[in-house]
Design brief:
Elements (H helix, E strand, L loop, with lengths): L3 H11 L7 H27 L4 H46 L1 H42 L9 E2 L5 E2 L11 H33 L11
Antiparallel strand pairs: 1-2
Amino acid sequence: MKTLLACLFTLLVAVPVLAQDEAVERARIRETRAAADARFAEEKKVCRARFAVTDCIDKVTREHNTVLHELSRQENVLNDAARQRRAAEHQKELDERNSPEKQREAAEKRAKVLADQQERDARAAEKAAKRAQQEAEHAARTPTVKTPKGEPGPQGKPRDGKPPQASGPTADEAAKNRAEYEAKVKDAQQHKAEVEARAAKRSKPAASELPPPR
């Protein structure tokens, strides 16, 4: 029967290849631990069939603990190597980030972002100016209608405001203009009648010039 010490020797031989592939080594450790636990349970059954049960179980237990201790040591080696690798990778990233090339690339990237933002702002300002010019031209072509000012009423209509001013004469002004026109027409008619009367009077013969009656 192959003992646990032979398994331990196999593990010790496998230790130098731990750095080749961490995932493979971790899987090997898990499989070896499971096999050691199964063999330990089997050898304890064999010990119980012997006369010196206690001594036999103590022996296989010490061998099993030795195997488990070695597996734990190998896991610790893997963990330390992983921590050192992560620290080295982090330091490498810091060194690359602080290198002149990386700093130049970062500066160029920031300059490009700033230039793109300025270009977008310029396009937005140009659109806003063009829109304002179009609105001004439209307002110049469209006549404005004055609306009464005042506080809005309950229905949204202005209140306490002046009514819109009409562009033509008011009713009083129209009546006054009509009266003046009629007076002028009446004066003209009266003047015409007087002129005609004077003309007729001048054309009528005098009484001395009439022929004597027969």
